[in-house]
Amino acid sequence: MNNRFSEIAQKIEKDLWDYLKNTSKKIILYGMGDGAEKICKALSLIGKQPDDFMASDGFVRGHEFMGKRVKTLSEIKSLYSNFVILVSFGTNIKEVIEYIFTLSEAYEVYLPHVPVFGEGLFDYNYFIENKERFEELYSILADKESKIALENLVYYRLTGKVQYIKNIMHNREQSLSLLNLGDNEVYVDLGAYNGDTINEFLNITQARFSKIIALEPDTKNYAKMRRRFYMLNPKVFNAYNAGVWDKTTEIPFSGKRGRGSRAGQGKMVKVYCIDDLLKHENPTYIKYDIEGCENEGLKGSENTIALHKPKLCISAYHKIEDLLELPLFINGIRRDYKIYLRHDECLPDWDSCYYFV
Fold first, then answer.
1. Within a domain: residue 343?
2. Number of structural domains the chain divides into
3. Crossing angle, helix 4-12 and helix 144-159, to 10 degrees?
4. How far is CA 123 from CA 116, 157, 209, 218, 231, in A?
5. Could you tell me which of 204, 203, 228 has the C-alpha nearest to residue 216?
6. Taking a C-beta distance cutoff of 8 angstroms, is the pair 154, 131 a contact?
7. Beta-sheet pairing, 169-170 with 186-190
8. Phi-psi bin for 212: left (phi > 0), alpha (psi -120 to 50), beta?
9. Do residues 125 and 84 both lie within one domain?
10. 321 — phi, psi (to 5°)?
11. Considering the domain boundaries, does residue 349 fall inside one?
């Protein structure tokens, strides 16, 4: 078996959180909102708290965050001689990504990995506990690029260094080309949002397909999707205001139109077991981007995957375990998939996806 991850364990020895726990440098959070709150919570677990908050010059207007006035970088430099910057927001805007890369060349900058959903941290202890399973995953990836992506994602999650993400950024069109989508697909979009990935699919296939089945639990996003594709014949476009789970039932769901949407709280919504929903269909391509419910969604798709072997695109970043557990679970259902891992142009490691062909 490959020993790549034993080498990583020897090279890293300690993670970002251990470094921050022991540093005497001032800790500056760059950004506000949900990401900053999660990083503050993680810092509290190691007995630390931010010394200050900063934002880009255009966003600093005298407002406060967590009881502190948000400052510009120039103000931070004038106040502190020795500090680290923790980027606490995500972006897929190229100009912002480039600015963060440039900032990291001039200052000590980290982009801590905290889960979008769920608890825990991808720290050194988690990595060591699962090192052999990462070796197993590495061995079944289909190409060198996927193996490099996995290594760099592990390095990034342990160290918070943005260079590891920069090493593996891909154009999304290049990533989707791995699926080799044709003009007769039965596409199942799980987590269809406002229809953006359906539109992406239509552009790739030049609107030639057999059928689209779309599920979106957030009511407002679902309505936007329906309006966006009002012209599609309902015989070939089935849309459901519903989520995905390992059984057909109802669960609490909080819709916030984006990454804030989550299962487990809020009003009750319908959720489908995909094996139930698709028992009379022959799906050829399924996309899973279901805000931390990928594990449950895949468990409810086990028979569909075993029977039809659809092409799959699966988000691998919502929970700390997704990067490892999701591909190994599918490999346990069918071992004849070619498994690819790609990270699109985004910071942090959101939009890291597995492609099964």
1. no
2. 2
3. 20
4. 15, 7, 43, 33, 48
5. 228
6. no
7. unpaired
8. beta
9. yes
10. -85, -10
11. no
Q: Is residue 352 part of a domain?
A: no
Tell me how many degrees the CA angle 166-25-110 measures, rounded to the nearest 5: 15
Both tokens of residue 142? Answer: 């289909």
Q: Comparing C-alpha atoms, which of 331, 320, 257, 341 is closest to residue 122?
A: 320
**Confidence band for 261, pLDDT divided at 50, 70 and 90:** low
* Helix axes 4-12 and 131-140, enclosed angle (nearest 10): 140
DSSP-assigned letters across all residues of 243-265: EEESSSEEEEEE--SSTT-EETS
- Asked if omega into 348 is within 30° of 0 (cis), the reply is yes
The Cα 191–Cα 197 span in angstroms is: 9
Element at 320 (helix H, strand E): none
The two structure tokens encoding residue 311 = 């092409």
- For the cut 90, the answer to whether the pLDDT of residue 23 exceeds it is yes
Q: What is the mean pLDDT of residues 292-305?
A: 97
Average pLDDT on 271-287 reads 97
Give the CATH number, domain containing residue 37: 3.40.50.20
Structural domain including 112 reads 4-169
Which residues have C-beta within 8 Å of that of residue 279, sequence separation ≥ 6? none
Q: What are φ and ψ of residue 155, in 5° steps?
A: -55, -45
Tens-digit pLDDT profile for residues 288-297: 999 999 999 9
Which pTM does this prediction carry? 0.94
First to last CA, the chain: 24
d(CA 319, CA 120): 9
State which of 137, 169, 201 marks the end of a domain.
Answer: 169
Question: Does residue 121 sit in the same domain as residue 184?
Answer: no
